[in-house]
Amino acid sequence: MSDNLNSSEMSRLTRRKMLQGSAGLGIGMMLDRSGLAMSGGEDGPISLDLGGNMWTLHQADEQEPTRASIPGSTYTNLLAAGKIPDPFYGENNGKVQWVAEKTWLFERSFEAPPELHARQHVELVCHGLDTLATIELNGHRLGSSDNMFRTWTFEIKPHLRKGTNHLRIRFDPLTPYVQKQRTAYQQKYGVDLPHQRSWVRKGPYMWGWDWCRPLLTQGIWKKMELLGYQARIADVGVFQDHAADGPVQLEIHTALAGRAPGLSLEAQIALAGDTVATAHAEATEAETVLHAVIPQPQLWWPNGMGSQPLYTVTVQLKDAQGRRLDTATRRIGLRKIEVVPPSANLSLHLRVNGTPVFAKGADWIPADNLPTRVTPEILRWYLSKAAECNFNFIRLWGGGYYEEDELFDLCDELGLMLQFEFKFAMPAIRSRTKPG
User: Fold this and answer.
1) Span 233-332: which CATH code?
2) What is the rounded CA–CA span in Å between residue 93 and residue 305?
3) Where in the chain is CATH 2.60.40.10?
4) In CATH, what number does 22-227 get?
């Protein structure tokens, strides 16, 4: 991250950009011969982004490759290559359904630098695989996926070569898999769940809805990277406790991956570039909680009720010599939101910072049926229009997919509260145990 960013530029950075800009010790960016964007430091984690246009795509029973870009899907890449018509124009939707009925292979080669091989742990981190995928590196099967919503991580150091490495990901069609699962479940439990949505963790809208036609995408729909490290910050969650007399207590839950002797964590909480609180703790467990107090908090308010000051929480992981190994950043608004149940004289409503709020808003569906085409600029356009319409509340509909951090950061900026729904819209979901 550039040291020349002013406070207004910092306030517009998304969580993803802050994380990318602060990862590792002494960030350096380079492009290797395989087209890999590499970031990392001398002692901290090293990340090699496997995205870009160095991939090929082809059907399992055909050898003619199509140049592919990642993140991307079968549909986005075939459309870019001119091999299918626009699925959203006229009657074209029916002409492209064959794509989802095929098995597809995404492949690429890359070279891993010595710095990566030197790390104790080397992982292939797939932030989004859509959906039934089998992952192979240099002919070794790493594993498989059946859920587009989660991150899949594979330890690859035993299979990583010092020369050229080859990565292949096979995406299978849904129908045969669903039929097999459905039949086995019915035979075992006597219960039939007829809709495909019941059997695959995938965006429910992709089978079609009252506002869209079906389009069952396959592909690498989020970032894919190689991650080498000895110890790193795996996740950070910030919890708030608002005291009646004003101060806000912060609990900063930090999860670590990997181990090293003498690890410690330091947290800094800043507002508009000024530090307002700090915290320190020894990192002796896989999860460590740091405690901080903001004595005179500036509270976040919904759109139309006040301003939206945002605090930056920066957590650093340090080794026994005090060298910074990794950094993670979160941006938060300080607010207390309560759901007030209905009573004899009042209906159910929200209370923010002790003040009743009349919620005004809309339902959010995916900004594009092909999620890899959604950009931060598109999200900002839609959500800015919502704020201009005096909305203060957005329902994240349960029939879409889990949105990128940019959406949540934008809602923080714009004063938009969110009703978050898990993505289980409409279908009955199978039980892992006997139905009862």
Assistant:
1) 2.60.40.10
2) 45
3) 233-332
4) 2.60.120.260
Return the residue matching tokens 């695959």. Answer: 200
* Predicted model pTM: 0.88
- CA 230 – CA 40 distance, rounded (Å): 12
Type of residue numbered 329: T
CA 156 to chain centre: 22
CA 65 to centroid of chain Cα atoms: 29
Are residues 231 and 263 in contact, defined by beta-carbon separation less than 8 angstroms?
Answer: yes
Strand order in the sheet with 349-352: 337-340, 349-352, 355-357
Where do the CATH 2.60.120.260 domains begin and end in the chain? 22-227
Both tokens of residue 312? Answer: 């930056």
- Separation of alpha carbons 303 and 386, rounded Å: 10
Query: Looking up tokens 């996926």, which residue turns up?
Result: 145
Nearest of 65, 22, 66 to residue 47 by alpha carbon: 22
Enumerate residues 6+ apart whose C-beta is below 8 A from 390. 303, 304, 360
d(CA 434, CA 428): 14
**62: which 2 tokens?**
């055909």
Token pair, residue 271, equals 């507002």
Whole-number Å distance between alpha carbons of 393 and 416: 5
What confidence tens digit (pLDDT) does each residue in 58-117 have? 999 988 999 999 999 999 999 999 999 999 999 999 999 999 999 999 999 999 999 999
Q: Are 213 and 89 in contact (CB under 8 A)?
A: no
Contact 241, 249 (CB under 8 A): yes
Q: Residue 108 carries which side chain, given as an amino acid letter? A: R
Enclosing H/E stretch for 17: helix 15-22
Contact of 86 with 92, CB cutoff 8 Å? yes
- Nearest alpha carbon to residue 133 among 101, 100, 170, 160: 170
**Which string of DSSP letters, residue by residue, matches 314-342?**
EEEEE-TT--EEEEEEEEE-B--EEEEPP
Q: What are the tens digits of pLDDT across the range 202-246?
A: 999 999 999 999 999 999 999 999 999 999 999 999 999 999 888
The contacts of residue 160 (CB under 8 Å, 6+ apart) are 112, 116, 117, 122, 137, 138
